[in-house]
Design goal:
The chain has helices at about 25, 35-50, 95-115, 140-150, 205-220, 225-235, and strands spanning about 10-20, 55-60, 65-70, 75-80, 85-90, 120-130, 135-140, 155-160, 175-180, 190. It is of the alpha+beta class and about 240 residues long. It has one domain (about 10-55, about 65-245): Alpha-Beta Plaits (2-Layer Sandwich), CATH 3.30.70.1230. Strands 1, 4, 5, 6, 7 and 8 form a six-stranded mixed β-sheet that branches. Strands 2-3 form a two-stranded antiparallel sheet. Strands 9-10 form a two-stranded antiparallel ribbon. Strand 2 and strand 3 (about 65-70) form a beta hairpin.
Length: about 240
């Protein structure tokens, strides 16, 4: 029977996050590959469980009703491509934007706690997302990938091309990091997702130790990358960057 290829969904405008583990190229040639794979699996399990997490709330009406729904209801799919986590929203709404920022910050924390440094970019564009056919294709992926590769530090940044929705402490995006040398091509002003869950209940001192352990393990060739990372990681963890020095 001939396969019907006309059933693929149409491309739609959506937000895409490309979250890449740094240092995997070197790690696959080392003795600790199995250990890294186990840490990766733990972090991915937390990521997928968070994507499926429900929230229970009470409506106001006659009568009041309890409603249960996904917390990240606008995140349509999370896909894994080797050492990259790709996150796709279902549209370009303001809620979808806040959710992908919140989710990306939470995933960054999961991976950091498990000794896996992430660098990521959040962008948008028309993209086909067809998990059943293993087809993921479009400008959103390309834009997020290019943004992720455009700087040399840990952390996640938001494309300056994304429409400027209202920002503030109650949203999932910080104010900008001003003229910060992230070690690559970037605008002078760069936004960073700062709101995310700490589901592992990691203390500030544990975050600091995790960052310093990664820096010490990276070796002298990557010292500049970790120097570039202090301010952005401080923003994402909600701690004073001076404590990461």
């Amino acid at each position: 029977m001939q396969k019907d290829y006309s059933s693929l969904p149409l491309a739609k405008s959506r937000y895409v996050a490309c979250l890449d583990i740094l240092g995997i190229t070197e790690a696959v040639n080392g003795p600790g590959l199995v250990e890294i794979a186990q840490l990766y699996q733990k972090a991915l399990d937390l990521t997928f469980n968070t994507h499926q997490m429900d929230v229970l709330y009470t409506t106001v009406g006659l009568p009041d009703l309890q409603v249960q729904e996904k917390y990240f209801g606008h995140i349509e799919h999370v896909a894994i491509f080797s050492d990259s986590v790709m996150v796709f929203t279902d549209d370009l709404s303001i809620n979808a934007f806040y959710e992908i920022c919140h989710f990306s910050n939470t995933v960054f924390k999961f991976f950091l706690h498990h000794g896996l440094p992430l660098r990521g970019g959040i962008a948008h564009g028309e993209t086909i997302v067809a998990p059943a056919s293993n087809v993921f294709l479009g400008k959103g992926i390309v834009n997020a990938y290019k943004l992720e590769k455009s700087f040399d530090s840990l952390g996640v940044i938001v494309s300056p091309d994304i429409p400027k929705f209202p920002r503030g402490t109650s949203t999932s995006v910080s104010s900008v990091i001003r003229k910060h040398a992230l070690g690559g091509t970037y605008p002078e002003l760069m936004e960073v997702p700062v709101v995310g869950w700490n589901l592992d209940k990691v203390s500030e001192s544990e975050w600091i130790d995790a960052f310093k352990d990664l820096r010490n393990a990276a070796g002298p060739k990557l010292l500049k990358r970790y120097k570039n990372s202090e301010l952005i990681v401080g923003h994402m963890l909600g701690i004073d960057a001076a404590r990461l020095k």
